[in-house]
TrEMBL record:
Domain of life from the UniProt record: Bacteria
GO molecular function, one term: branched-chain amino acid transmembrane transporter activity
Organism lineage: Bacteria, Pseudomonadati, Pseudomonadota, Betaproteobacteria, Burkholderiales
Protein name from the UniProt record: ABC transporter ATP-binding protein
GO biological process per UniProt: L-amino acid transport
Length: 241
């Protein structure tokens, strides 16, 4: 479904991604883990066109989207939940959800009912300003807003960042449910390697803008180098292990 080939990206003169290759097959959850500054969010943002790829290609269902503007990429049934959520804080919860409904030929009321069923707290807070929600509730809102567009590929950038354990558990439960019950394909960027690799079919480890390791979720979870670097608080680099 998504094929990233030899992708490079820069911020000015600083190269953030170096010839990265990532593939996401339909129906998979694929996770990308790595330390702060490894290039995870850059990769996610480059898929949507900011920053622009300086080399390589990005294809969605065989169609090259490397140089397409962001608003066109969104029309290809791809939705992103960015790091930091970026909800419309002055709008109500309901208004945020409606902002995610990008198609006029769908039944919005049914979509809203489905979102409230998945995230009951949003129904209880429908008329509340989004900026007054807790961090975990805002993350649920950000995911629900993205789902309102009926994406076939969902990009999640650090969905558990800064959340309390109870919300982290809920978020990963929802990711699994979206995949198993609705067949949604998910590309997940996460610092919480333990939760991410447990839910993922496959994973990639990104270091300094390079792919250092790749494999199925269970294999990476059991890999001594991954455990030392990301699961046991050790800062040892994989390329030096």
């Amino acid at each position: 479904m998504l094929k990233i080939s030899e992708l490079s990206a820069h911020y000015g003169s600083v190269q953030a991604l170096h010839h990265v290759n990532v593939q996401v097959n339909e129906g998979e959850i694929v996770t990308l883990i790595g330390a702060n500054g490894a290039g995870k969010s850059t990769l996610m943002n480059t898929i949507f066109g900011y920053p622009r790829a300086s080399g390589g290609s990005i294809a969605f269902e065989g169609r090259d989207i490397t140089k397409r503007p962001s608003h066109e990429i969104a029309k290809f049934d791809i939705a992103i939940v960015p790091e930091g959520r970026r909800i419309f804080q002055r709008m109500t919860v309901m208004e945020n959800l409606l902002m995610g409904d990008t198609s006029r030929d769908r039944r919005t009321s049914q979509d809203l009912e489905r979102m409230v069923g998945m995230f009951p707290i949003l129904g209880n807070r429908a008329s509340q300003r989004a900026g007054t929600l807790s961090g975990g509730e805002q993350q649920m809102l950000a995911i629900a807003r993205a789902l309102m567009s009926h994406p076939r590929l969902l990009l999640l950038d650090e969905p558990s960042l800064g959340l309390a354990p109870i919300y982290i558990k809920k978020i990963f439960s929802v990711i699994r449910e979206l995949n198993t019950q609705y067949g949604m394909t998910v590309l997940l960027v996460e610092q919480n390697a333990h939760h991410a690799l447990r839910v993922a079919h496959r994973g990639y480890v990104l270091q300094h803008g390079h792919i250092a390791l790749e494999g199925d979720g269970r294999s990476l979870l059991a890999d001594p180098a991954v455990r030392a670097a990301y699961l046991e608080g050790d800062t040892t680099q994989l390329d030096a292990a």
